[in-house]
Amino acid sequence: HGLSHSDWPRVWRTHPLKQSYDVVIIGGGIHGLATAYYLATNHGIRDVAVLDKGYLGGGGSGRNTAILRSNYLTPEGVRFYDRSLQLYQHLAADLNFNVMFSQRGHLTLAHNDSSLRTMRWRAEVNKLQGVDSEVIDPTEIKKLVPFLDTSENVRYPILGALYHPPGGIIRHDAVVWGYARAADANGVHLHQNTEVTGIDTRGGRVTGVQTSRGRISTRVVVNCTAGWSTLISDMAGVDMPVTTSPLQAAVTEPVRPFLDTVVVSGTLHVYVSQTDRGELVFGASVDPFTSYSMRGSLEFAEGLAGHVLELMPAISKMRLLRQWAGLCDMTPDYSPIMGPTPVEGFYVDVGWGTYGFKAGPVSGEAMAACIAHQRPPKIIDAFGLDRFTSGQLVGEKGAAAVGH
Ligand code: PYC
Fold this sequence. Notes:
Elements: E1 23-26, H1 30-43, E2 48-51, E3 67-68, H2 75-89, H3 91-95, E4 106-110, H4 113-128, E5 134-136, H5 138-144, E6 160-164, E7 168-169, H6 172-185, E8 189-191, E9 196-202, E10 205-211, E11 214-217, E12 221-223, H7 229-235, E13 243-252, E14 262-265, E15 270-274, E16 280-286, H8 298-311, E17 320-330, E18 337-340, E19 346-350, H9 360-373, H10 387-390
Parallel strand pairs: 1-2, 1-12, 2-8, 4-14, 12-19
Antiparallel strand pairs: 3-7, 4-6, 5-6, 9-10, 10-11, 13-16, 13-17, 14-15, 15-16, 18-19
Bound molecules: pyrrole-2-carboxylate.
């Protein structure tokens, strides 16, 4: 006699929608949930609602390829993502939820002189920030990943790689569920199937949120959405320099473990890792057009297979089981937009491009501090919306996993 799923305890509660909250967070993914959790635990702000038009973790949080790393190109980016890795390192204990973080190492391959130069640059910036990254040669790469074709007789020979030992993978859904359960336990109300249809402002400040389940009065609204971040900001009258493109991913049938590190190739537009269950998870760069589609395409699967087999010819018999897409909100400098906006009480945590998942914990921590102290903490100082008028961009394109 086994447990039927109806016997399982609920991980978080449901509540009636209250008519007012101190803080309303739009978007029930890792960013929104982490912001709610740190508001409650770090600042004692517990009268918080998280609204999602679908289910928790159904957007980018459930569609990413679960890769964590902090080997960025700018000092601001490296410090920021490294704080996220530190939070991820003790997240299982903090949330009492097994998030299965595996720091198995991360390799970004260089197939030409200019990428090798960028890898050296990243390694030096990383080391100056205390982050473990170094450039290694094909012999060392082969030792770490014996299945990689490191010969010289291929279209794009591997010249070297940026090796980042602290990088790895995690169970992305567990991170969402862990934050959701802990936020709920700290008094946060999680409202699924609750779509935001308008944001009320008066005299340049936020006064409330209109939803498919009624109006909420509030003086603080945080836009933690991806894909729809511009539509939500438009509701408050805030323009954002963001375009949205799909990024596709795919997963194979499970096989015995053979791939111990995360492998990224910008030139071949692919990254791959093997889950604890044995599946290979692949991702690519964003599709070359703007769209809100979250479906996979045959063109993508064909291109992906061709590229992967250039790297690992031995896996040609493996079968793809599933493919899907997530939505990436791209900014002009490939860095996020975080903090206050010209509308008082309206905050944004958006523009995550192709690396929002790994930033979840530090973003939640920083946005919670920003709201509690009514000014951005130092760690997100460089990511304000005003940089697009002052011209102080944080160019992070060279650290995107694969080219765009
Ligand atoms: O930035 O590491 C990354 C990444 C992996 C998948 C998409 N982006």
